[in-house]
Amino acid sequence: MDTAQGGKDAQMDISNILSSVNSKEEFMNFLNELRYDNEQRGEEWENKDINAFLEGVCSWVGDMEGYFRNMNMEIPENIDWKFIATLFYVGKIYE
Q1: How far is CA 22 from CA 2, 5, 7, in A?
Q2: Is the pTM of this model over 0.85?
Q3: C-alpha angle 92/26/35, rounded to 5°?
Q4: How far is CA 48 from its chain centroid?
Q5: What is the pLDDT of residues 3-30, one digit of tens each?
Q6: Is 61 left (phi over 0), alpha (psi -120 to 50) or beta?
Q7: SS in 3 state form for 6-40?
Q8: What is the maximal distance between C-alpha atoms in the chain?
Q9: What kind and span of H or E run contains 93?
Q10: Which residue from 32, 37, 65, 81 has the highest number of Cβ atoms inside 10 Å of its Cβ?
Q11: Under DSSP, is residue 56 helix (H, G, I), strand (E, B) or coil?
Q12: How far is Cα 51 from Cα 34, in angstroms, rounded to an integer?
């Protein structure tokens, strides 16, 4: 079910959706839910504009090993940084 586009009976917890992302479709659903969350509860977001959002992402990447250690999670290996950079870049140019 596309909860961001269809009727929402109850807001799904974004962190629960994030933890279940294992496919292209689930990733797209996560992005839609994240966008919906911003539209509905933008006042709860720490980073309210694109510059602050990108700065937050950059800061987190700089300390991601600490995040994973603190969350008792395995630090990912073989991250495709070029692909991630491409995702952010196409957000600028793709309609």
Answers
A1: 16, 21, 24
A2: no
A3: 45
A4: 14
A5: 454 434 334 588 889 989 999 999 999 9
A6: alpha
A7: CCCCCCCCHHHHHHCCCCHHHHHHHHHHHHHHHHH
A8: 38
A9: helix 81-93
A10: 37
A11: helix
A12: 17
Q: Which two tokens stand for residue 72?
A: 């008792």
Residue whose tokens read 């917890």: 13
- At 13, the amino acid letter reads D
3-state secondary structure of 1: coil
Token look-up 């070029």 returns 82
Residue with tokens 């509905």: 40
The CA-CA-CA angle for residues 66, 68, 71, to 5°, reads: 105
